[in-house]
Write a structure and sequence with these properties.
single chain, 131 residues, mainly alpha, 3 helical TM bundles of succinate and fumarate reductases, 77% helix, 0% strand
Amino acid sequence: MTNVTRSRPLSPHLQIYKPIPTMIMSIVHRITGGALYFGTILVAWWLIAAASGAAYYDWVNWLFGTLIGKVVLFGYTWALVHHMIGGFRHFGWDLGYGYEKHFATMMAKATIVASVLLTLLIWIVGYLARY
């Protein structure tokens, strides 16, 4: 008796497909969605610290003000902005717009550019508002 599974073709996987902007943005959209769960814990921690008293609040603010804290907060800001812009792109698709290949590719590229620029703008405005 022969093994019938040996004659079956293998399903294509990520090694087979050439990465295209829409595919990459779909993957990044899912990753940023997952990252937002963990980043929201930071927001909750900060709010709990604010409600717990000045000493703990100052300590959490100090921690978020370190280089590592700022990198994490910058990443959270980017994930939030990127996921929001990706959500607008998905909303357009839900309405039946933007399915054309050239337009979908352009929107995928615009999503990454807009999310980086908006994140930088948010941080620049936030930094300038401190002084």
